[in-house]
Design brief:
alpha+beta, 2 helices
């Protein structure tokens, strides 16, 4: 899983995101992003297969990030890579917008 998520997780960490939780089937609240400026919710990007995962960054004394994907298998690795490649940049963009609004 780390080989699929690793580079994107580092981008989220650098952007200040502390947690991303992706859950299929929750509509506009399918993806929850936590940053120092608050919580953001958004739906799955178009044409991306929803897969469940959680990324937590920067827990005190722990690793830089923890990634949990209960349904991950070698067979669906491509679905996870596509989801992470779509969701993490969206999360970073939305967190940057949120930061700009809160720090005006």
């Amino acid at each position: 899983l780390f080989e699929v998520a690793g580079p994107r997780v580092n981008e989220a960490l650098a952007a200040g995101i502390t947690k991303i939780t992706a859950a299929p089937g929750k509509g506009a609240k399918s993806i929850e992003v936590e940053s120092p400026y608050g919580v953001i919710f958004f739906n799955w990007p178009k044409d991306v297969k929803p897969v469940a995962f959680t990324i937590e960054t920067g827990k005190a004394g722990g690793p830089a990030a923890e990634i949990s994907a209960p349904g991950f298998t070698e067979g669906n690795k491509g679905d996870y890579k596509a989801a992470l490649d779509a969701v993490i940049p969206m999360a970073i963009s939305k967190a940057a917008t949120q930061k700009a609004q809160k720090t005006k």
